[in-house]
Amino acid sequence: MPAVGCFPALSNEGAREFEFINGHEKITAGTSDFLYIPKGTRHAFKNISQNTARLLVFYTPAGPESFFLTHGETDRAPEPWPEEKFNELVDILGAHNMVLLPSDHDWD
């Protein structure tokens, strides 16, 4: 089981799994798993199952969630953001003390 902390994967039925990058480590997590990602640690995640899945994310101290509340899409299933969208968000992310890092070969 992954380390205790945050990012539990939630599901109602069927297999749901996410792959996480936590620093230099890759972790696969599923329903009821909990991951801890320390502040300032490079991280990313993606749904690797065929099913729609959700994450419950806790931020302590609070703050970064305001970025997702303002810029997230809730009216439909999210699509991967194209590079142009990431480029538009660099300054906005900085205002939330978030840094977008290069992703070359992260998911290889």
* Proportion of beta-strand residues: 15-25%
Rg to the nearest angstrom? Answer: 14 Å
Question: Low-confidence runs (pLDDT<50, min 5 residues)?
Answer: 1-11
Major sheet summary line: 3 strands, antiparallel
| Gap between N and C termini | 22 Å
Give the topology.
Elements: E1 9-10, E2 17-22, E3 25-30, E4 43-47, E5 54-55, H1 65-71, H2 83-95
Antiparallel strand pairs: 1-5, 2-3, 2-4
Report on the structure:
The chain is an alpha+beta fold and 108 residues long. It is built from two helices and five strands; from the N terminus they run E-E-E-E-E-H-H. The protein has a three-stranded antiparallel beta sheet with strand order 3-2-4, with no helix packed on it. A two-stranded antiparallel sheet has the order 1-5. The chain is globular. Residues 1-11 have low confidence and may be disordered.
